[in-house]
Amino acid sequence: MKVRTIVFGLLGIGLVGLIAYRINKNSQGAGPQSQKSSQSPVKISGMVLKPRNFADQLSLSGSLEANEQVDVRSEVPGIVENIYFKEGAKVSQGQELFKVNDIELKAQLSKVQTAKKLAAENERRAKLLLEKQAISQEEYDIASADYQSSQAESELISAQLSKTSVRAPFSGTIGLRNISKGTYVTPTTVVAKLVNTEQLKLTFAIPEKYVSRMKINSTLTFTTSDTKRPYTAKIYAIEPEVDVTTRTLKMRAVVDNSGGDLYPGMFVNVNFPLEIVPDALMVPTEALIPIQNGKEIFVVREGKAKAVEVKTGSRTSKDVRVLSGLQPGDTILTYGIMALDNGTPVDVTLD
């Protein structure tokens, strides 16, 4: 009897302890929940999404090249006798740039012309003798060949003599000269650069997925690094194949540079219009949060922040186009979002 009483007493004590333990755990679990429910809303900035027109553009980098450019050289070696151009000046096609001394070539030409006259006379006499059958056909052929050889040599020296006067192959701007009067020049000596900058070539490459949108005579705009002024260009040539290494297609556009504001070699930012979207949803760049498989944006649902995964498209310097995940009229959170969690109460100030 005594043993049974002891057993029942121990069971009662254990039951009371278990009830007390459960009550204590429930009270501890309810504390944070009640604290969370009583959490004050976070003040944060936001905006209501409204559809708007968006000009979708392809942004690329390119470089300017001269329409025509050449290193001015002398085709014949010799001493520079005169220089007729000023550095940085405009020159016209056919204008004489400098003169190489031609005394030796003139002397050679005089010698050859004398030999040519003698050969011509010998050929005339041989022809008369051949008609009288006083000489053989072979002897006449030798005299005729001597005359023709002298004539060719005379023409060769005359051509070399004409090359001592170096002229501009096209109109343009002559650069800084690398010679002085009295310098000995050879065909490898670069005297100066001649560049035609009235028109420039803009060379750039586009990703292959946009190839079908590019057409000859399509117009594009570009800016330079030193100014935000937009310039226009027109595509005139497209490479016939895609570069298999970069998966891009190279093309060229022509730029009017009659004002002289642009220079060959400049780096430019090219903007090519793709399409006009009349109802695009644009969000500030800072509203996007990178996640493992994409991006997400916090929106307001019943006074609380909710993370929504979105798919994005083209972007500008400040905004990004959202393709899916949001609807017009949604209130998105823009500033101070990194400290938010799903379900955090928010007090939104609309921009």
Could you give a short description of this structure?
The chain is of the alpha+beta class.
Give the topology:
Layout: H1 2-37, E1 42-48, E2 52-72, E3 78-83, E4 90-91, E5 96-100, H2 103-131, H3 137-162, E6 165-167, E7 172-174, E8 184-185, E9 192-207, E10 219-224, E11 227-238, E12 248-256, E13 267-284, E14 289-291, E15 294-301, E16 304-315, E17 319-324, E18 331-335, E19 346-350
CATH architecture classification name of the largest domain: Beta Barrel
Strand order of the largest sheet: 2-9-12-11-10-13
Cα radius of gyration in angstroms: 44 Å
Amount of helix: 25-40%
Number of helices: 3
Q: For the residues shown, what is the average pLDDT? A: 85
Number of strands: 19
For this structure, the CATH topology of the largest domain is Elongation Factor Tu (Ef-tu), domain 3
Taken together, the total number of domains comes to: 4
